[in-house]
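Researcher: Go.
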Amino acid sequence: MSETGSPYADVRGMYTVDTMIRREFALLPGLARGVAPHDKERTKIVTDHVRLLVLIVHEHHSGEDAVLWPNLLVRAPKEIDPVVHLVEGHHEAIEAISLEIDTLLTAWTDCVASDVGEALADALERLAAALYEHMALEEKLILPLVERHIFASEWGKMVEDGALRIPPESGALVVGLLMYEGGLDAVPPELHDTLADVARQAYAAHSELVHGTPTPPRSVDVVIGKPASIGVAVSTGAGWHQPARGAPGPGGAV
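Model: Structure:
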């Protein structure tokens, strides 16, 4: 049973994941463009950040590929099959751009040249745009179907398996990435006392290193390609927001 009392999936947590993806991926092109040629230290910081985010999306999508699409194609009305195939295609396109980015990151790390950095920024812009398009369609058309055709046990196993594929050393940071706008709802209740503060601190320190502020712009304030101002706290909100009643909650964290 899900937390809503239904035998079907509680998808509220998916919105928390999508919020984090929108925020962080919109800021990536500006981060790449902000690295000065031959600044190897800064290049490594941005490269590590990009690789972690791309890994999160890859594992998130791998779970959907294994659980959601095949079951929806069997259980949901046949007229939605084209939509399922469309979001499957989105995943393939996102993976292709991600592989291109991986190659560019390797080249960028080796030479830290401005032309490679600009090519990387362009690819990151395309990736962010593709993710935005995919998430908008998924939220509008797919998640309502998931709530009627995917069982809570299947959803929970998908989420758990995705979490297990994230490197343990990045676990607290990933939770912090989700908590920044998802609040405590992004943390399982049994881990509030042991993980919440550690996760907050991990993301604040990481964001200070990457964005120059522990409180980067929130998802509603970001523009694809426009970075947070390095060294300046530019958040328009207080950060570490606790969602209002009825806002997305547990069930979708990777």
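Model: The radius of gyration is 18 Å.
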